[in-house]
Amino acid sequence: MGLFDFFSRGSGGKSQSGVDPRCDHYSFAHVVLRKAAFENPTKCVTSLASPSGKEYLSELWNQVLETCKQHNQPIELTLDDILIHKLRVGPFPCTILEMPAPHFATEAFFVALVLTVDITDQSQNMSDGSVRFFTLENGEPNEEEVQTVIGEWTADGKHSNLGPGTYPELSEFVTKITDLVLQPSLPDQQPV
Length: 192
Prior knowledge:
30% of the residues lie in helices and 22% in strands.
């Protein structure tokens, strides 16, 4: 399946609610930004965090516009709708993109790119960093409360659902991804 086959699948690609996410919203958070982050993690994270971050964002956004145009999908968002937050997750540089409010399942509230280079350790080379790519996604509609899901993409294009997400507030999302990034890894379990 190609990067944008999601929008070519017809009814087979609909969420449980029967509605596809918007092309621009989904393509940016789950495809274009992800591709840029894994192709060159250091460039992506540092470019977005730089004073000229909106210029780099504009390059990525042009890919979204072209994709949606190719699939005859409307463009509802603008580049100015996306906010960039620069912070640290423990010792790691992190850029979080705040998306406009999602309307459909799988659209993201936030996307976090955590560059796994300890910036407090001067022996580490920034260009050797990999990236962890997290999303706080809108869950299936629920009339009683906002439903969110924490997702993580890997370099090989696999998406993991990490369970229920936080309330869609920046500070809560930062706390959650900090816990995920800094939690100690368990050793591989050996069969008994």
